[in-house]
Amino acid sequence: MLVTGDTIAFVGLSDPRHEREWIQLETLKNFFASYGVNVFISPLLYEMECSRPAWAKELMRLFEHPDVKAIFDVSGGNLANGILPYLDFERIRQAEKPFFGYSDLTSVLNAIYTMTGKPSYLFQLRTLCWSQAKQQQARLVASLFEQRHDLFDVQWEWLSGQRMQGVVVGGNVRCFLKLAGTPYFPDLTERLLFLESYGGKENLIRSYFYQLAGMGAFQKVSGLMLGTFTELEKEGGRIEDIVHEVVPADLPVVKTRQIGHGEDSRALVIGETLQLERGDSHA
Q: Within 13 A of 81's CA, how many CA atoms are on the CB side?
């Protein structure tokens, strides 16, 4: 995906970044420089107030810039879905450029797949600066520079069913549901729905699952994939209990602790066809 001499770009389509996080951007820039990759940090990342149209214009410019080979969003929060009406998805489709983001960027990742049919990557690049930095750096280098699968190698635990196959959609459940009722919400028919969450105690997470059930999501998808539910688990809750209550018993369900808001979180490709079978725990 990347070779020496390439240029990548950092953007922040969700909430503004705090000054204390700016040093992480320089750390990441230096990390990529050690592999001969140039990093363009969008100046908008250093602005505390930036309009949705301005960020959309910047993103489109980077998608179409011939020197930029990949775009990494390093933000999170609440505002990412606000840029969607200002994006030109046909131009994004033609660019065929990898886009990475997580959490609130779930809305953008799924919109890109829905509107273009192209995949994008659920991953937070700043994990390369956190407590599991060395391991995350090694996984990223193996996958982006050496064409290996380390960053995408995920162990799944089966909760029900024997097999699932389909195109992966979803991400952070709160941010995924922002797309409900919009043209950016993906068709769930025969899809694999991945869900995770950072915030949310048991009843809030249960309400998200109730909403998905009311939308007929669990009747349409061919499988449910669960990541970590950080606050729920911290409070002693179990996502399995909510699944048992809300999700049809005959729907295949798998779970992993390797994708979510953990500091060692792997990557998941939104818009990629995935096949899982019981007994083969890795994807």
A: 19
Burial of 204 (0-12, 13-18, 19+ CB in 10 A): middle
pLDDT over 80 (residue 283)? no
pTM of the shown model: 0.97
User: Which of 28, 133, 6, 20 lies closest to 73 in space, CA to CA?
Assistant: 28
Domain architecture of the chain: domains with CATH: 7-151 (3.40.50.10740), 152-277 (3.50.30.60)
The answer to whether 73 and 11 are in contact (CB under 8 A) is yes
- Cα–Cα distances (Å) from 103 to 33, 73, 174, in that order, read 26, 10, 9
Number of residues that make up the chain: 283
158-208 pLDDT, tens digit per residue, is 999 999 999 999 999 999 999 999 999 999 999 999 999 999 999 999 999
